[in-house]
Amino acid sequence: MKILAFETSCDETSCAVVENGRTVLSDVISSQVPIHKKFGGVVPEIASRHHIEDVLPVAEAALDQAGCTWKDMDALAVTQGPGLVGALLVGVAAAKSAAWALEKPLVAVNHMEGHIFANLVQYPDLEPPFLALVVSGGHTMLVQVLGYNHFLLLGQTRDDAAGEAFDKIARVMGYPYPGGPHIDKLAQEGDAEAVAFPHAMGGEHNFDFSFSGLKSAVINYLHTAQMKGEAVSHEDTAASFQKAVTDVLTEKTMAAADKTGMKTIALAGGVAANTGLRKALAEACVERGLRLCRPDPVLCTDNGAMIGCRAYYMAQEGKFAPLTLNADPRLPFSFSR
Predict the structure, then answer these.
(1) Which one of 26, 100, 138, 241 is separated from 272 by 20 to 30 angstroms, measured CA to CA?
(2) For 6-17, how does the pLDDT look when each residue is reduced to its tens digit (9 = 90+)?
(3) 3-state per-residue secondary structure call for 157-190
(4) Model pTM score
(5) Right CATH for 2-116+299-316 from 3.40.50.300, 3.40.630.10, 3.30.420.40, 3.40.250.10
(6) 128-295 — its CATH code?
(7) Whole-angstrom distance, CA of residue 176 vs CA of residue 147
(8) Does the N-terminal peptide bond of residue 198 adopt cis geometry, omega within 30 degrees of 0?
């Protein structure tokens, strides 16, 4: 089964051809980062306009790289949400048009579920059940993946997501969008014990997260030093902040693994590319004899391959969407009750 998948939830236009869920025949990504960098973040209207310009050329490029034609596709898949509504609408319109013209079924995919399934693309032998830590710019959650279409939410952020905190701290420190990679690079040169930032909700007997207090603490630290005319090491600040985030993420994930008995941990989302988090989780998993799955950085970003993989397992259960499908910027996760 060949699926052409569209991903346009934010500032990457991506299309991929995925065969039988696990074999990626092509995955083309057109990034808008250089465009939005000068604005300090994604401008929704600009993102939408560039998706309109790029979506069909990117789809054609994905088909060419896969050595396929439109008629070779067995289904079309698209990210329905969550994301920027204008950006989502472009992908949804393109996928619906193709499905109608080709008389092929349409699959509507949750973006966050797609991020988890990037692990299935990276690891062909990975099968449920496993525990997923989803960490992105808009979401931070622990999910128990009980089956290909069966998810159980264990905990999530009560305020800011980890990725949002990374970008905000980088912006305050004067680094351009996207800020997360700048913090990661600085942290590798700094002393993680230099500043004692708070570990939000660490040690509590739940699997929820909170990063707004930590974000405020770092901003207050920087502003106080500025007002006093004191020099601040960006490397030490970044390292200490990153450690405060990764410590809580790792602690909660290991506690969830202990409670559920899961022996495999899957890391997902844009922040899954963070070297500090990948290292901390790897060390914790080695200590407990757990398997850690970490997608390559390109699969941590928004991409069509993960959408195609997720769509395949939805199609296997007949979870198709009508041609009246609309984008949903707040689309909830398909958690089991």
Answers:
(1) 26
(2) 999 999 999 999
(3) ECCCCHHHHHHHHHHHCCCCCCCHHHHHHHHCCC
(4) 0.95
(5) 3.30.420.40
(6) 3.30.420.40
(7) 40
(8) no
